[in-house]
Structures are given as C-alpha cells and as structure tokens.
Amino acid sequence: LMMMLYNSADAVVANSIDTASDLATHGIADEDRISVIHNPVVSPDLFEKQNEAVKHPWFQDSSIPVIIGVGRLHVLKDYETMIRAFSIVREDRAAHLLILGEGAEKESLLSVTRELGLEESVEIHGFVPNPHAYISRASVLALTSRGEGFGNVLVEALAAGTPVVSTECPGGPAEILEFGRFGRLVPVGEVEAFAQAILDTLDNPPDREALIDRAKDFSIDTITSRYMEILDVNRSRT
Asked: 144: exposed, middle or buried (C-beta count within 10 Å: 0-12, 13-18, 19+)?
C-alpha cells in the first residue's frame, strides 16, 4: 500500500537522509521525488518552557554536573549503555545522571543501576510535563539510541545551549549535529567511548550561542519555508 500511494505522490518528504535512503532502497518512493526536510522542533514557546522553575535538588548545586537522558524507556533507546558509560564518568568525578521517561525497561535499568552501585547518583525520574526546563539546566544531554526517526530531543538541547553527546545511529542525530560539529558522536553501544565523550564535553563544552544558532535551522518558520518550496505555493497561485 505504501509503495502504491507514495509513488502516486508528486513529492515525498523524509525527515532525514537515512529515512530518504530507506524509502528509495526499498522501492517505496522514487529517489528523484524524495526531498529531505527536517522536523520543525523549535517554536517560540520552547524558550518560555526552558525558563520554568525546576525544584529537583540536583540542580541546586552547580558544582556537580547533571547528565540528562530524555525519552521512553525502550530497548531501542539503549539506556543501559548510558548508565554503564555514566559509571565510568563517576570514576573520574562527581556527577549525576537523571533520566526522564517511562517504559517497559524501567525495572531492568534499575537493576543495572543497583549492580553498578549507582543508586545515589542515577535517578529514573519518570515522566515530567516540561522536560525543557530540565534540559536547559543540564550539563550534558546524552542520547544512546540504536536508531532514531529524527532525534527531536537533540534539537531541544541545542536550543537551550546544552551540550550534546549522541550515538551516531541511523536516523537524524548525525545530521542534526552536522556530523560532529555541534556535538560529539559515538558509535552505537560503545560504552567506554561514550563515557570519554561525556568527560571531554564536560571539560571542553562547545560555545553555547553556536548551539542555539544551530537550533534555529529547525525552527517552525525555517522548516515551513522548505515545505512552501516543495508545495510551490507562489506558482500555484498565478
């Protein structure tokens, strides 16, 4: 059904180069009709949400960095790698790991936390209605996914000026970070490399304004203009 419908369309939009490649490789859409337009993530109210108060005690002491992970607790997100990498970070310095999300992997991840003796420095906090306020106060946002459709949370972190460490998984992360220019990229599942990337980022954080500038490429206005080009609204009106 997808092959029939997609190939009947005048244009097909993919939200990442990897998605576009998959569509073409599997014959779902002809390559010459596929355009890549990233997700519109940054809206004006995003910046308002970043400024909302956060009462979590870990954000009251700025001398101890907080690493944050955000997303559903699913095997695809590979939070076990995040926790194991964090255990290496903890061997080097005091730090906290705060995971915002719910899902089927929670008990398994709590078990890993206990195994590594990290109960006092790792918290699986669960769902929060406004994760942006937490992200904006974190020292690093970590993403250890084995695959992403796009990776909206990386853009949300950039918009807050929060440094990012991500796996170079299939999907959007490498594109969002311009292949390492705006955040460190690590091979999927590489615990020690991920830990080192976090430590390097804590020691040498990127320029905050440069991250915020990059996030503007994913604003609603910017992405809307790309869709307008595809739809060719101006020509259709004449």
From this structure: buried
